[in-house]
Amino acid sequence: MAESPRSDVGSPAAARLLAALGGVQDPELRRPITELGMVGSVSVDDDGAARVAILLTISGCPLRGTIVDDVTAAATAVEGVASVAVDVGVMTPEQRSELKAGLKKRTAPFTEPGSLTRIVAVASGKGGVGKSSLTVNLACAMAADGLRVGIIDADVHGFSVPGLMGITQAPTRVDELILPPVAHGVKVISIGMFVDGNQPVVWRGPMLHRALEQFLTDVHFGDLDVLLLDLPPGTGDIAISVSQLLPGSGLLVVTTPQSAAAEVAERAGAVAKQTGQEVLGVVENMSWMDLPDGGRMEPFGSGGGELLAARLSKTLGVDVGLLGRIPLDPRLREGGDSGRPVVLAAPESAVSLEIRRIARTLSRRPRGLAGRSLGVTPA
């Protein structure tokens, strides 16, 4: 992507230093800084004093300190380096243009026929069923398994993903390109990152569609294995926009055990019959609470998940499975309040184990080749 940084080619220590910097990743782009053209020069003198010139994408880069610390740590570990000085500069407009061009060439848009990104839109019939908490925990569970994961907080009016993920920083802009913040190994974008304080977003249909479109075109997620979308409850504008902008997306429908909640959630899943989307399955949340004496209490009743799966199977004419039943656990709420999802804060809890099982079911689900280019031309 960029020219090799200047170095003292006659110095073995400088060569080792440059190689070590190849292991330092930009915390936003998740790519080696040497590959991104962020290393301006490296040198090591006879006394082992190393000097590294780093070029930031923008002057106000919010992760400047992280990059400097990572470069210093990598350089200090190099044989023959006794001390490290890091000089920080900023890319020229020409260097930024080269960076953007390289990123665009490396990025596979999710709408391209050859894209291998699995897109999961998490939906519900009504609010309050734990859809957003499930979304962030599924994402963190997948990332912990080594997958490259992104989240789009598509619930524009009721955004909550940044808080649930503990994200306080704003996205970085490189001209018109937006770099999403990364938390717990997951890239996240939300309209909540662009509003002041807790101000409401008062938008109507066309603006909602445009916001989602911008998230998909202007935000650099890079190559993802899974993209999760936290949809607003119901079957409104955003649900329709997702089906138009991401026709290959699948729906994961969340309900509680209460039969009334399952009836409402059925509408959110049945929209797939009109949009042509696949319903990946049903998740029942708040299924029961484990009591100190070893018993269980079902405060919201039982059977809602099975009922919803059966009704959607009948409506859509395909088998829609109940992927899992998640128990009530105060640690799920505590993880959301602290910005550390429960699958990371309490990985051995029953709620975490069930969410991890659901995440692995979704990530391992076979993908058909219908409509995909195989890159083969008949002889």
From TrEMBL:
What's the source species' lineage? Bacteria, Bacillati, Actinomycetota, Actinomycetes, Micrococcales
Return the InterPro entries for the record: FSCA_dom_sf, MIP18-like, Mrp/NBP35_ATP-bd, NUBPL-like, P-loop_NTPase, YlxH/NBP35
Q: Which family does it belong to?
A: Belongs to the Mrp/NBP35 ATP-binding proteins family.
Q: Which Gene3D superfamilies match?
A: Fe-S cluster assembly (FSCA), P-loop containing nucleotide triphosphate hydrolases
Q: Read off the HAMAP family from this record.
A: Mrp_NBP35 (MF_02040)
* One Pfam family per UniProt: ParA
Please give the organism: Arthrobacter halodurans
Domain MIP18 family-like, by residue range, is 16-86
- Role of this protein: Binds and transfers iron-sulfur (Fe-S) clusters to target apoproteins. Can hydrolyze ATP.
Specify the protein name.
Iron-sulfur cluster carrier protein
Per UniProt, what is one GO molecular function of this protein? ATP binding
Provide this UniProt record's keywords sorted from A to Z: ATP-binding, Hydrolase, Iron, Iron-sulfur, Metal-binding, Nucleotide-binding
Q: Summarize the subunit comment.
A: Homodimer.
Listed binding positions for ATP are 125-132
Family matches, as CDD domains: Mrp_NBP35 (cd02037)
